[in-house]
Every structure is written in C-alpha cells, then in structure tokens.
C-alpha cells in the first residue's frame, strides 16, 4: 500500500464524480456519501496507524524523484488532521440528511461536500506549495457552491463578498509563490526548506513570510483580516456552517503552521513576533465579538476567531511544548466547533430563529439537548476533564516558559470570557421562562441530535484519553520542531 | 526586461485595486480580472525572462526558456477562468434577486436558515 496517503483524497474524489451521474436519486446519493465518508474514516485511521509504525509516508506521483515531481507527504500532523476532517464530514453528512430540505439536497449538495473534502484533505497532505494552492482552490470553489446553494437574497449578497475576498487572497497566493520561486527556484516544500537556509537573504525572505501570513491569514481569519467572516458565515444553513467553521479556517491555520515551521526559521524574532501579536489581537477581537452579540450563530462564529488566535499564539511561541498544545487545541477545536454548530442547529430548528430572545426554558422539554450543549460548552472553554483543557494548558505553559508574561494571561482570560459567551446561550436559551415553539424542525429533534451526541462523545473521549493521544501528538510535533526529519523523509538523502 | 514587466504588473495591480474598491459589482469583477492578469504576469517574470527557444524539444537547440512557470500560469489561468465565470453568474443572479449592483446597498444581517 505505497499509495496509502492518496486514499483519503481518492475516495471522496471518485464518489463525487459518481454522484454527479444521478443528482435526483436522493436515497442513493445519501447512502453513497455515507458509505464513502465512512470508508474515508477507515482509510484515515489506517493511515494514522501506518504513520505511527513507519514514520513519515511519502508518495511521489509518477515516480519522478522528489524535488522534480509532486510529492504527497503524510506526517503525523497531516494524518491526524485528515482523520479529524473525515470524522467531521461523516457526522455533518448524517446530520444534513435530516436537516436540509429535499430540494436543497437535490442540487448537487453531496457532490460539493465530497469535493470540499478532497480539497481539505489534499491541502493537508500535499508537499508542494503550488499544489497546495490548487487544493485550496478545490475546496474554495466547493465552498462557493455550498454557501450560495439555496439562493436566498442574503446568501447571494454575502457570497459575493466571500467570493471577492477569496479571489483576492488567491491572487496574492499566486504572487507569493512567484516571489518564492524567483528566489529559491523550487516548489517542493522540503526542497525549499533545505535551500532557504543556504540562500541567506533574510530581508526578502521575511517579506515573503509576511506575505504568506497575509495569504493564510485571509483564509484563517486572523486580525485584521477577519472582517469577512462574521457576515459570510451567517448565511449558509447550519450543516454547511459546521463544515466551514470546523474545516476552512483551520486549513489557513495549518498553512501558517507548516510554512512558519518549515520555511521561516531564520529570523524568528521578527516574523514570529508579528504572528504572536496578531494572534493575541485576534483573540481580543473574537472575544469582544462573542460577548457583544445576542445571536447564537454569531456567538459561535466569533468563537472560531478566538480559537484561531489561541492556536496561532501557540505556533508563534515555537517551543516544543507550545506546538504540542497548538496541535492538541487544533484537533479539539475542529471537533468541538462542529459539535456545537450541530447542537445550535437543533436549537434553531426548534425555535425557528437564531436570536436568543426567541428562546427560553428549553431544558424543560429538551433536557438531553440542554445537557449535551452544557458539556460541549464546558469543553470549549477548557474545563479540566474535557478536551479543551490540555491544549490550552500546554500553550500557556509554553508561553510562560518562553518568557512571555502578557500572552498567556490573555489566553487565560479569553477562556473565561469564551465560557461566559457560550453560557449566555445556555442560561438564556435553556433556562428562563418556557416558551411554546413552532420551529419547522421540532419533530426531527431525535434524528438531528444523534450525530451531534456522538460527536460530543468523541470530544469527551479525546479529553479523557489524553494519555493515549499524547504520543501521536508528540510525533506530529517532531517535524515541526526539527524540519530536517521532514526534509530527509521527502528527499531521501542517506 | 524584467523591470519593465515588473512595472507592468505593478500598474495592473494598481488598476485592479482601484477597481475593486469601487461600488459597482461589474467594476469589481473587471478588477479581479486585472488582478489575476497581474499575478500571472508576475509568475512569468519571476521565472526569469532570459532568451531561449520555446520549451519544445528539438534537435540542435541547447537553451530553452523555463517551462515550469508556464505550466503554473496555465493552471492558474484555468482556475481563475472558472472562478470568474462563477462570479459573473453570481453577480447576474444577485442583480436579479436584489435589484441592485451597488455594494453599498447590499447590507443587513438578517438570518436565513
């Protein structure tokens, strides 16, 4: 199985192509996408197992040797992210079967989801910087389709803006790759990482590092490039929002993580300091937004921005401990954000509105939903036995050990305010005077709650089983701390 | 030669930024077209513009131009072509539904689900 790293890309790709043949056979569409996403999970689990056994796996497409052909690289980080992506998509597909109207599903919805998975998994797996651009475009174009599907006026309006922002950032990506190619003369990430230290042009390389920060920051919504996110994420239906909130911004974060550990280690006091300050500003902006709004969707959307800031703060410190924390928190956040979006989707389905003033006293009629949400909210804030704790602990400890006294405090205070913002939903939505609800999806409560419950259970397991997960995370951080492991695995110099 | 091309790409970017900052959707789409032109021109320029034969293998020719940037540009062109087509159709639909092509009038945070 030398082509194993390709499997999580090929399965959704082939499924997407097959599904195009019969867009109107809904039952077949659903079974096919469920089976294929399940197969993707199986492939991803096996991939993680093999990477754990044999170290970094590489596939050189067409057997062209490494710097000349395109290489796909599965190290532990990308394998874990591919596994998390496949898991999430399975639950979101399961959820959308009940949540979305038949008409909505008929218009190539599952096909767009499959291609989104191809793009995201590809971006996590690729070892070539231009190939990464292509995979970015694959999932962006799928996301354009998903965000506008339904064609309501607000969706058309906001997707115009979303599209424009991403067209600009894609053009910037191409320009940045052109600059990098002009200086290094190579596109393979391992080869660039090797040559970038020999070339010794710190000035221009720092400029390119900042350009990459702008490009990936636009995808990942860091301060001050987050402005498009609250509006755009408000309009798509909740399952799509769960996909976007859990996956798309995290690909930008992964891009920063990869380029800043692999390429730009020559002038850390400049580039990583910029990243650190921007990450802290991102946390502050996200927290302010989450506290200011009284709309359940908006509260969680601003919490995406907070999480991006926390992860990137861990990346900017660049010690082993903080990077471990960042990877822990990255995976935790992908899982818990998807679970929370699925849960508030049920709430919106019951109340028929996403405003908190239209909700109240839900705990009386829907206790299971309420307490699941409660656990998920505690987990998001990082209460000890749950999954958000260990990542934040490592990030904060790493920050203190690196001698930073401001950053860790901002991270800690942000946890408190994040807890306050999500507890607003619990206090106002679930407690208070009960109301009679006439939302359109009340009768589907049980079917909708099932995938969300399983996803919350997985995050609880991820938190409780930290000891079991730790060696995998440690292996994922190895090539980030020491790029020569990555370079050697790809270029095979021995 | 590279300097002239760099200036040309710069002017294209300048016009693109100016157009993207305007209010009308169509002007913005023209701006994104210019922006992708600028990016493609930059890729070609950064690969180096030294003289050589077209990258097709023939007997008796030893010096070729760099084939890699040409392949990159070809990929980027089709991608931006696809996105622009989608953008134009989206703008058309938005004009039909919203009755305006002025971005200043496309405001509001009403929720739809």
Automatic annotation (TrEMBL), chain B:
<keyword id="KW-1003">Cell membrane</keyword>
<dbReference type="InterPro" id="IPR050601">
    <property type="entry name" value="CPA3_antiporter_subunitC"/>
</dbReference>
<keyword id="KW-1133">Transmembrane helix</keyword>
<dbReference type="GO" id="GO:0005886">
    <property type="term" value="C:plasma membrane"/>
</dbReference>
<feature type="transmembrane region" description="Helical">
    <location>
        <begin position="69"/>
        <end position="92"/>
    </location>
</feature>
<keyword id="KW-0472">Membrane</keyword>
<dbReference type="InterPro" id="IPR039428">
    <property type="entry name" value="NUOK/Mnh_C1-like"/>
</dbReference>
<protein>
    <submittedName>
        <fullName>NADH-ubiquinone oxidoreductase chain 4L</fullName>
    </submittedName>
</protein>
<keyword id="KW-0830">Ubiquinone</keyword>
<dbReference type="Pfam" id="PF00420">
    <property type="entry name" value="Oxidored_q2"/>
</dbReference>
<feature type="transmembrane region" description="Helical">
    <location>
        <begin position="28"/>
        <end position="49"/>
    </location>
</feature>
<feature type="transmembrane region" description="Helical">
    <location>
        <begin position="6"/>
        <end position="21"/>
    </location>
</feature>
<comment type="similarity">
    <text>Belongs to the CPA3 antiporters (TC 2.A.63) subunit C family.</text>
</comment>
<keyword id="KW-0812">Transmembrane</keyword>
